[in-house]
C-alpha cells in the first residue's frame, strides 16, 4: 500500500519489513509491509500479543536492529529525512535529540556500575551545549518531572526500586526534549499501583511538553486509556488503525474484537470475557490468505486464499475482507449478502462469572479455616533483633468449590500467608484448620508423614511458568514425577493419568504434548502444564500465586477460565493471590485485601469492587484500566 | 566502608589461621615437632638427618615450656622474619635465600603478567567490538590454537630457536659476570637473560585474558544498557570504552589479582626450563634437596600471596562494582 506523503507527519513509516536471518534457524519476517505515521504531539498506541513484532518494529524505528535482523524493505522518515538511508555518523546527532526511548524490561537499561547522574550527563553533554552545573540543574528538573527525590541523582542503579528505575528511564528519555518517545511496555512487571502512577505521569508530561509517543503494549485496556490513536498488530502486520474512541466503539478487525473481549467492567453483575484461542502463525512460512484465518471466528472461504489488503475504511484502516464488505467497502468476489451484520463481540470462547454463582459458592462447607493468624519474623542484625510482623490477626474461610482472592501490594503478607497455609512455616499466633478427609486437623500440628500427606492436598502454582518447569524434562516426565510420588502409579496407569491431566488442562491432542520440552510451548501452555502438575496430586486446595501476571493479556483469560472450571468440576478450593482486581473479580467469590499484614477489607468480591471502603482497595481499582467506564 | 573492613578482617583472620595451623599440626602428636615435621615430609621409613631437624627447629622451636609460651615464641620468630636456616644453603637463613630469588621472579612474572593482561584485554575487547570480522576470527582462532600448546614446550622451542639456533639471547641463568646491584651492565644482562622466559610466558598467558574479555564483552554488548547507549547517540568510542569494556573488565580484574597470587605455580616450569634464578627454581631445588625449612617457608609465602591476592581482588571489585559492596555488607 502507498501512503501519500502527508506534510504534517513527524514520523512516517512506509512499507517497512524486517527480517530475522539467523545462521542456524530458518529466516522469518517479523515485520511485514508496515505503514503508518505519527503527527507531532500525538499519542499513538501499538498493541498486539507477544511475538506479534512490536519490539522488532520499535527497534527498527530507532535503527537499533542488530544481526541477524535487518530492514529488508521500506523507509522510516523522520521530519522528512529517510533515516534508513543515513549512515551511522549522520544518524548519531539525531539520536535521542529527536527520538528517545524507554525499553521493554528496561530494568537493565541503566549501566549498573555508573552513577545515575553520569548517565544523564553523557547524553546531555553529547547533544547540547550544557556543561557542569547546568547539567546537574537539568537533571534536577527532570527528576522533578518524574517525581523522584533529588538524592537519588547520585545513586547507583541498583539502589533504585523497579518503579524508580522506570521513572529514571523516563526522565532520561525526556532529557533532550525529543520530538518522539518510543515506550516499549514501560511498566510491564511492576506493581499495578506503581504502573498506574507511572502511566499517568507519562500522559501528563506528554500533554505538557507536547512530544509525540509511540506506546507499545499488549494490554489493550491501558492503550485505550492513554492513546489518541491505536495500531493493532498481528503476525508482523498492522491489521487495524483507528482513533481510540472509534476503535472502542466499533472495532472492525476480528482480532481487535478479541483483544477488547479480554476486558470487561468488573462492577457488572455478570462479567464475561472472551479470548482468542490458538497461537500466532509460523512466521518462517509465507502466508497465503489472511494471517489470522486459523483463529478467526468470522472467516469465510475467501480468507483462506486471498490476503486482505490494509486499506482505509470507515475513518480508519483495516485488513479484513469481512469487515470491509460489512461496512460497504468492496472486495473482489464477495457480496454484501455473503456476510452478516457487523458485531462488536468476538465470537470465541468465553468465560462468564455471575454474582449469583458467587453467592451460592459462599454457602458451601469450609475446607480451610484461618483463625486470627499472625506471624512475626525475627532476624538478627548484629546484636539487635529485628522483628517484622508479616501477618497480623488474619481470619477467613476457604470453602469447597469456592475461590478466595488475596489481594495486596508486594510486601503486604500474601506470600507469608501462603507459606503458613502450606505448612512450610508455623503461625506465631492463631490457628489454621484443615477440614480434610480425616476430619478437622490443625495445620501447625502436622509432622513428618502427616505433613507430607497434607502437602499432597495443598498444591501451589507460581507466577512464573518459565522458571517453575525444568527445561531439561519433557512435559510427560514433569507430570509423571508427582504421580509416582503421591500415588505410586506406574506403566499403563501412569501414562493414562498423564493423558487425563493434559486433557483436563486442554492441552490436546495430548500425544502432541507429552514428548515436548517446556521451551517449545507458549507461556500460556507452560502455565497449563504447571497447573496440570499441581492437579496430579489431586489436591483439595490450590494456592495460585499470581499465576497470570507474567502472561500476555490475551492468554490470561484462558488460564482464568481453566482455574474457574477446575473449581466447579473438582470441588476444590482456590486461594488466588493477585493484585489485579479485574482478574480477582473474574475468578473469585470472596476477596480479602491485605495491607501491611492486616486484612483491611473483606467481603464478596462484587461488593468490595462496587463499594470499596479502604483507601488501598480504591487505588487498586483505579489501577484497573477501564476503557468502558 | 563496611565492605572493605570486612574483607580486611577476613584476610587477617585467614592468615592467622594458616600460620597457627602450621604451628599446631606438628604438635598434635607427642614428640619433637621438628622431627615429626621432617619425618612427615621425608616419609616414615627414611633416616632422620640431624642437620635437617636442626634446620627445622630453628623455625618451629623446641618443645619446651607450655604450649602457649611455644606459640608466642613461634609468632615472635615469624614476626622477626626468622624462618629457620636453609638446609641446601646451610647456614644461610631461609629468608635470605628467598630474598635473593624473589626479585627475579617478581620482576619477571609481574612484568609479564601485567603486559599479558594489558595486551590480552585490549585484544579481547577489540575483537568483541569488531565481532564476526576477520580481526575477531584471527584473534579468537589464534588464541585457541596457542592455548592448546604447553608453556614448557613453547619454552623449549624458544630456547632452541632464539637461543641455540640464532643465538640472540642467553638461554639460562639470570646474569653472567656483572655484580648484582643497580648498575648498567648488570641490568643489561638481567634484561637479556629474562627475555626468553618472559617471551615464553607472554605467548601463553594473554590467551586467557583475550578469550575471557572477548566473551564477557560480547555478552555485555547484548545488554540493554549498551543498546540504550547506542540509542542515546553516544560516539562508538565512548560506548566501547566507557560502557562495554569497562563493565566487561570487572571479572578480568578479579581474575588478574588472583593470577598474580598464583604466580609461583606458573613460574616453576618456565624458570626450571631456563634455569632462571627465581622462586620457581628455588622451589624445585628445595623439593629435590629435601630442604624442608625452605619448602615450608615457600609454602607459607605462597599461601599468604594467594590470600593477599584474594584480598586485593575483593577490594578492587568493591571499588569497581558498586553492586558488590551492597550485596555482601
Ligand atoms: N533475535 C531473534 N532471532 C530470531 N527471531 C527473533 C529474534 N527476536 C525476535 N524474533 C522473532 O520475531 C518475532 C517478533 O518478536 P518481537 O519481540 O518483536 O515481538 P513483540 O510483539 O515485541 O513481543 P512481546 O510482547 O513478547 O514483547 C517473534 O516471532 C520472535 O520469535
Ligand atoms: S479476513 Fe477473514 S480471516 Fe482474516 S480477519 Fe477478516 S474475516 Fe477473519
Ligand atoms: Mg516486545
TrEMBL record, chain A:
One of its GO terms (molecular function) is ATP binding. SUPFAM superfamilies: P-loop containing nucleoside triphosphate hydrolases (SSF52540). Keywords: ATP-binding, Nucleotide-binding, Transport. Gene3D superfamilies: P-loop containing nucleotide triphosphate hydrolases. Residues 11-260, 368-621 form the ABC transporter domain. SMART domains: AAA. Belongs to the ABC transporter superfamily. This is ABC transporter ATP-binding protein. It comes from Phycicoccus sonneratiae. The lineage of its organism: Bacteria, Bacillati, Actinomycetota, Actinomycetes, Micrococcales.
Automatic annotation (TrEMBL), chain B:
Pfam families: BPD_transp_1. Coiled coil: none annotated. This is ABC transporter permease. Belongs to the binding-protein-dependent transport system permease family. The keyword GTP-binding does not apply. It is found in: Cell membrane; Membrane. Keywords: Membrane, Transmembrane, Transmembrane helix, Transport. The chain crosses the membrane at residues 101-126, 138-162, 190-211, 248-274, 294-320. It is a multi-pass membrane protein. Residues 102-313 form the ABC transmembrane type-1 domain. It comes from the Bacteria.
